[in-house]
């Protein structure tokens, strides 16, 4: 986790604890307090669910990873062939120059 996500998690946790303490010290009936606690937990559950969904959407699927790997492999193969072709051309030029020097 990054420092930013750790700070966000700490903030949410602190807010939840603070809200819980505030509700427990309130002078409401027990049923009202329990309702407030349940609503608070439901809100936090929804927020965590949203964060989880956002994180899930950022994780690539197996198919996306395979497609990216295939694309990278293809690019490497193309570059390899280009380099080999270039080296073969230079070798041919060097051989021609060496043959010309022999004459």
Detailed description of the structure:
The protein is mainly alpha-helical and 103 residues long. The chain has 2 domains: 1-59; 62-103. It is 90% helix and 0% strand. The protein is built from 3 helices and no strands. It has helices at residues 3-25, 30-58, 62-102. Helix 1 (3-25) packs antiparallel against helix 2 (30-58). The protein is rod-shaped, with a radius of gyration of 32 Å. The model has no long low-confidence stretch (mean pLDDT 86).
What is this entry, summarized?
The protein has 103 residues and is mostly helical. Helix content is 90%, strand content 0%.
Query: Which radius of gyration do the C-alpha atoms yield?
Result: 32 Å
Unreliable parts:
none
Inertia-based shape: rod-shaped
* Number of discrete domains: 2
What characterizes the major β-sheet?
A: none
Mean pLDDT level: 86
The overall strand count is 0
Order of helices and strands: HHH
Q: How much strand content do the residues show?
A: under 5%
Structural class: mainly alpha
């Amino acid at each position: 986790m990054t420092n930013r996500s750790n700070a966000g998690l700490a903030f949410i946790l602190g807010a939840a604890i603070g809200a819980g303490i505030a509700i427990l010290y309130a002078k409401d009936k027990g049923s009202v307090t329990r309702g407030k606690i349940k609503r608070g937990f439901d809100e936090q559950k929804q927020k965590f669910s949203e964060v989880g969904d956002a994180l899930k959407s950022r994780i690539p699927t197996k198919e996306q990873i395979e497609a990216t790997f295939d694309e990278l492999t293809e690019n490497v193969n193309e570059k390899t062939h280009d380099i080999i072709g270039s080296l073969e051309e230079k070798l041919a030029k060097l051989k021609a120059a060496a043959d010309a020097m022999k004459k």
